[in-house]
Design goal:
The protein is α+β, with helices and mostly antiparallel strands and 114 residues long. 59% of the residues lie in helices and 12% in strands.
Length: 114
């Protein structure tokens, strides 16, 4: 995404880059280190090969992921977060914490309604 295409609101900018369900999950899995395509395909449950490819290209174009191709047969490709990609760690950690708290809240509400 070009600079002049970025929204004025920083929250909207962040959502435009990682707001897609799949992108956030791909970044989550890459926070632990470099992964090959098939490793990501297995770890991001429910994603199709086409959608994974599309999202990885988008993340690469946005400067969040790097792609390293090894000249061998069969082809080997590895994906790694850039420094900017790794800087999303506190954002995803906050999302995980909030998600955990929300699940506990729903569990409590469920118990109270029984």
């Amino acid at each position: 995404m070009e600079f002049n295409e970025l929204p004025k609101c920083p929250v909207e900018t962040t959502l435009k880059l990682i707001g897609d369900k799949w992108k956030a999950l791909i970044i989550r899995d890459l926070l632990t280190g470099t992964k090959r395509f098939n490793e990501l395909k297995k770890s991001v449950e429910g994603i199709s090969q086409k959608v994974l490819t599309t999202n990885l290209r988008s993340l690469e174009n946005d400067g969040l992921v790097t792609r390293k191709v090894f000249a061998q047969v069969p082809p080997k490709v590895e994906y790694t977060l850039t420094d900017v990609g790794y800087s999303l760690m506190p954002v995803l950690n906050a999302m995980a914490s909030w998600g955990t708290d929300y699940k506990e809240f729903r569990k409590l509400i469920n118990k109270l309604n029984k």
